[in-house]
Amino acid sequence: MKKEPAIRELLHSHNLRTTSCRQGILDILGNSSEALTEQDIKTQLDSQHDRTTVYRSFKTLIDNNLIHKIVVDNNLVKYALNPKWYSQHDHVHFYCKQCDKLVCIESEQQAGIPLPEGFSASETEIIIKGTCKTCTE
Ligand SMILES: [Zn+2]
Ligand SMILES: [Zn+2]
User: Which sequence spans correspond to the domains of the chain?
Assistant: First the structure.
């Protein structure tokens, strides 16, 4: 399954140059069914990219809404490709405490809860922690 043309289009549609590092990160996340840590991604990336390049690529992709960062706790941060429905509504994440798996959960419902008058939300981060299907079985 070749995803490269789509990935290139994705970068192009955001007026971003296709660099091998950006494309590599998108490919890895695009082929993964769960969110990955920077370390997971680095291990799969060509070792030719230095830390600064990888760091900048992450930043560019996040700033351009192609990938998003999920902070589970101080020690665990993961990244996921923005799903097609990403911009339409907030979404929640599920984190499995047994196997460290983190996935984006699509929900038609707004994840946000009603705010007091005068407050406005710019982003909502909700992480549901528990046990995934594989670990339950
Ligand atoms: Zn699990
Ligand atoms: Zn997500």
Answer: 4-136
Q: Quick one: which of 75, 64, 76 has its CA closest to 25?
A: 64
User: Which of the ligands is closest to the CA of residue 85?
Assistant: 2
pTM of the model: 0.82
Ligand nearest to the Cα of 71, by number? 2
Write the DSSP symbol of residue 50. -
> Average pLDDT for residues 10-22, to the nearest whole number?
89
What is the average pLDDT value for the chain, to the nearest integer? 87
Q: Give counts: helices (H), strands (E), the chain.
A: 5, 6
Residue 51 Cα to ligand 2 midpoint, Å, equals 24
Q: Which CATH architecture has domain 4-136?
A: Orthogonal Bundle (1.10)
